[in-house]
Amino acid sequence: METSAAAIGAAGTMACGEASGAAERAAEGEAGTMGIKLDKAFVCFRIGTPLWMPDDRFAELMALFEKYKGVTDEVTFFTSETHPPLPLATLEERTKLLKKRMAAARALGYRAGINPLSTMGHHEENQPNSLNEPYTRVTSLDGNVSQGSFCPNSDGLREYARREYELITEAEPDYIWVDDDVRLMGHMPISETCFCDTCLSIFNKVHGTEYTRESLGQAFSSGPREEKMALRRAWLQHNRDTLTRLFVLIEKTVHGIKPGLPLGFMTGDRFFEGYDFDGWAAALSGPDGAEVLWRPGGGNYTEASLDGIADKAHAMGRQTAFLPESVVCIQSELESFPYQRLKKSTQTTALEAASYIAGGCTGTAFNVLSMYDEPLDEYDALVARLARTRPFLDLLAREFGRSRPAGLYSGWVKDTFASGGPDGDWFHNGDGSQGITNCNEILSTGVPAGYSAPYGRVTALCGESVLALTEEEVTKALSGGVYMDGKALTRLNELGYGELTGFSVEDVRHADCIEEFTGHPLNGTFAGRRRNGRQSFWKDPTYCLALTNEKAEVVSRVVDYTYAETARCCVGVFENRLGGRVCAAGYYPWVQLQNLSKSSHLKSVMRWLSKDTLPGMVESFHRVNIWVREPEPGSLAIALLNAYLDPAEDLTLLLATERDEARVVDMACGETAVRASGQDGPYKRFVIPEVGAWDMRCVVV
Ligand SMILES: [Zn+2]
Would you state the pLDDT for residue 35? Predict the structure, then answer.
């Protein structure tokens, strides 16, 4: 087996930037070590053509990295500054120069690789200087095309990609990254693709059908729900297979020239493509098990919304959830396009890198430098800051390795996209975030995040997305802790799970509903407190609940503006015959949760649902995101993000540990020891020294 550099050491650790054979890592994972140990984070900078093509600018760039030696281990070169594929002649010229640039970077101690910005292409820009062959463009259901992107199933594009990756491999990179143009949704100016004649004929042949674009579009969005869902699931599988075919071609091309060369793929939340990250990783690894790299992505280009940091960290969690243990180098896409320094501070950039490791990455790919051939002095302070943050990123990678956080899981699955608009239009239904980002506000009150069923201590079921679950997935969820909204309850009852849910929806109201907490023990001292989502402003129907089992209990009722009861129950709890615990939450279950009474009540509910199996949580009233891992039996490693512009004082954690001391490490790697100051059930209580505004701590027990 080809091993490109130093592999796993005797102690089972693996150094950053040192690729090793996948089989060795897989064996490590199977040995039950709960993932590979890392010495440090995987860090690279991605470099645009304006910074590496001119001799002087490239020299200046390398001088900047040398000035802040250690800020990065790898220099990754883009082939293009625009998104449609390059003409092969242009690419050939650039790969010749890249070969020299990579050698120069290696001479300074960096690993160096190539990141073709496009394979199939993305968006319409710079068309006069881009690939302009009569190959089929990606095509939408209504027959429109994107001139900047070619059908990945077309013979023309596949032959182009084969030659493209030959040229790139011949430049002798240490690794190659396939970029996120390899996707089927969002090639502007069109949205969902590819429905060209070739793609339709592939689908029709596999399924024995005779769909045209028109009849397929109708079948996606009309007729009986079960038939629609089956067809949509089949189309998602078709999309998975389309990308797999392209990856197999790339793998064979690259490894035919350079066996074992690590191949990486940059993703986003690829729901329409079928989210087949484990399958695609296997395709890129090839029959000989070459190393695969991953780069989870998603837009958070500026700091206009700071919540984008935590939201993207959760997207990182999803994008790493299905990756096999053998994928060790997971660099978050950290992008500040169009790279105007005043649009994102050094603090935000550094915090993003740390937060994305908290979510599930093991490093970062910084795409933060200029997109112009211009002096780099305005980026000096940024690179300096990232160099200062590097030890903290290394610490997070060391403490977390490839272990996964456990907590509240939003209930998403690979087929979630199939459930959008189950009774109408598949593509324009407003269900886009259901079952995906629904938990984000709950998570920002200090409930720990988990990103897949095995790491879900409580499963959140949202709206129509339950229709994407298999019978086995629903039964499994209902045997554990489930927090569900009124629509999900309705769908589950329709599907025949009423005996396990304990509630039904008896009315849906759109005005003047206010939640009032009853004297139920889960409400503690907050009995009688109210929460008003103000339906006149923020539209969200109230699902009034009927109790369908004598063991079901009312936790909240509905009152109006006279505070008279208008419905007996809008939030209730029930333990079913499988031992599963259910909270049916019919009133603003996903938002308007951030006052003291509701956030405290929610934490009580989550603890009850999980039977106290959450590995830890924030007990105090703070706007904090928390990721809790158990890297080894008996140890906990926690990341805390104070997502607030006030410092977090007296931040109190409940951690499921026998130990009495925790290490708290700040982003400058300053360390404090904290003694446990009490106990609550299986949890020890730790009060964390003040955490600054939009700042992170790593806590280790
Ligand atoms: Zn096509």
Answer: 59
CA of 220 to the centre of ligand 1 (A): 18
Q: How many CA atoms lie within 13 A of 322 on its CB side?
A: 19
Instruction: Compute, in angstroms, the gap from residue 330 CA to the centroid of ligand 1.
Output: 30
Residue (of 173, 167, 158, 162) closest to 93 by Cα position = 167
Amino acid at 117: L
Other Cβ atoms closer than 10 A to 144: 14
CB 644 within 8 A of CB 694: yes
Please give the single-letter amino acid code of residue 206.
V
Ligand 1 centroid to residue 423 C-alpha, Å: 27
The Cβ-side half-sphere exposure at 589, using a 13 Å CA radius, reads: 31
Beta bridge partners of 503: 547
> What does the alpha-carbon distance between residue 136 and residue 147 come to, in Å, rounded to a whole number?
9
Amino acid at 361: C
- Residues constituting the chain: 701
Residues having C-beta closer than 5 Å to ion ligand 1 = 151, 153, 194, 196, 199
* Cβ neighbour number for residue 352 with a 10 Å cutoff: 24
Which parts of the chain sit beneath pLDDT 70?
1-35
Nearest to 654 by CA among 582, 589, 573, 600: 600
Do residues 632 and 668 touch, judged by C-beta distance below 8 A?
A: no
257-299 pLDDT per residue, tens: 999 999 999 999 999 999 999 999 999 999 999 999 999 999 9
Residue type at 271 in one-letter notation = F
| DSSP label of 448 | P
Give the start-end residues of each E strand in 586-649.
616-618, 624-629, 637-642
Is residue 592 classed as helix, strand or coil in its secondary structure? coil
Kindly write down the DSSP assignment for every residue of 94-161, as one continuous string.
HHHHHHHHHHHHHHTT-EEEEE-S-SS--SS--GGGS---SPPEEE-TTS-EEEEEE-TTSHHHHHHH
**Spatial distance between the Cα atoms of 370 and 525, rounded to a whole number of angstroms:** 55
Please give the Cα distance from 199 to 241 (Å, whole number).
11
Distance 138 CA to ligand 1 centre (A): 5
Token pair of 354 as six digits:
């740390």
Burial 104-118 (b: 16+ CB within 10 A, else e): bbeeeebbbbbbbbb
- Output the pLDDT for position 29: 38
Phi and psi angles of residue 384, each rounded to the nearest 5 degrees, phi first: -60, -45
**Strands, E assignment, 336-379:** 363-367
Tokens of 181: 């143009």
- Tell me, what's the pLDDT at 37? 87
Q: What's the pLDDT score for residue 36?
A: 75
CA distance 447 to 457: 11
Phi, psi of 546 (to 5 degrees): -105, 145
Measured distance CA(142)–CA(523) in Å, rounded = 52
- Cβ-Cβ contacts under 8 Å for 252 (sequence gap 6 or more): 286
Beta strands of 387-489 (E only): which ranges?
Answer: 407-409, 456-461, 481-485
Q: H helices of 208-345, where? A: 213-221, 225-257, 277-285, 307-321
CA of 644 to the centre of ligand 1 (A): 46
Q: How far is the CA of 141 from the centre of ligand 1 (A)?
A: 11
Q: Which residue bears the tokens 């994107």?
A: 146
* C-alpha separations of 672 from 349, 615, 626, 675, 698 in Å: 25, 22, 19, 10, 11
C-alpha 322 to ligand 1 mean position (Å): 27
pTM (2 d.p.): 0.95
